[in-house]
């Protein structure tokens, strides 16, 4: 952590008022703090537990936070290159503040991540979501991902007990 804070990344012409930068460990509390309101789905009150501090300690170089002109959190993406499958990248979390949605911000975060992962030699990217998160499923399909699963759960194909008993997941993948 530096006294000056993390330097800005390349700005995005489509989002002129927003600042892109790498997360720092001290961003953890506010990133986790927005998750219940930004996800706003039944059963997601403790979703922040899936984003422990270690992600901002060890995956900051491949993750991004976005702030508005007041320094308030506008969006974030937490992703990384697989340690065990070096050709594969993974997006663990993405969130966009509700008032900034449908402006292409998540697309911008994904495309920047894709470009960086391609440059580091990755040829595939994955992500997962819950069967009840229809918006995330539509977003991932719009971003070129294909989904897989073994059972129809809540009307969608998902892998039963993927992350433990009752923790079903829709698995997404696409080439880079
Ligand atoms: C899912 C989420 C990240 C999308 O963010 P966003 O900034 O609104 O998405 P974008 O504006 O960049 O949209 C990108 C594409 O996805 C599509 N899309 C995004 N959300 C969609 C939705 N709810 N329904 C249908 N399509 C959607 C857009 O139409 C767009 O397609 P196009 O570029 O072909 O026109 C945002 O709704 C969010 O933060 N949701 C809560 C957190 C969450 O569920 N995260 C994902 C699981 S980790």
Automatic annotation (TrEMBL):
Ranges where the record places region Disordered: 1-22
SUPFAM superfamilies assigned to the protein according to its UniProt record, in alphabetical order: Acyl-CoA N-acyltransferases (Nat)
Keywords noted in UniProt: Acyltransferase, Transferase
Positions of the N-acetyltransferase domain: 18-176
Protein name: GNAT family N-acetyltransferase
Lineage, uppermost ranks: Bacteria, Bacillati, Actinomycetota, Actinomycetes, Micrococcales
């Amino acid at each position: 952590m530096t006294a000056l804070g993390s330097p800005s990344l390349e700005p995005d012409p489509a989002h002129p008022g927003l600042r892109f930068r790498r997360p720092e460990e001290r961003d953890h509390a506010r990133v986790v703090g927005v998750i219940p309101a930004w996800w706003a789905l039944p059963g997601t009150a403790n979703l922040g537990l899936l984003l422990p501090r270690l992600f901002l300690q060890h995956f900051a170089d491949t993750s991004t936070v976005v702030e508005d002109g007041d320094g308030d959190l506008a969006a974030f993406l937490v992703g990384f290159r697989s340690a065990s499958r070096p050709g594969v990248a993974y997006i663990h979390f993405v969130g966009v503040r509700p008032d900034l949605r449908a402006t292409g911000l998540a697309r911008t975060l994904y495309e920047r991540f894709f470009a960086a992962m391609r440059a580091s030699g990755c040829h595939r990217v994955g992500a997962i979501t819950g069967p009840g998160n229809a918006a995330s499923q539509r977003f991932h399909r719009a971003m070129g991902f294909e989904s897989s699963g073994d059972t129809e759960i809540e009307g969608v194909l998902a892998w039963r007990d993927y992350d433990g008993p009752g923790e079903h997941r829709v698995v997404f993948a696409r080439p880079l």
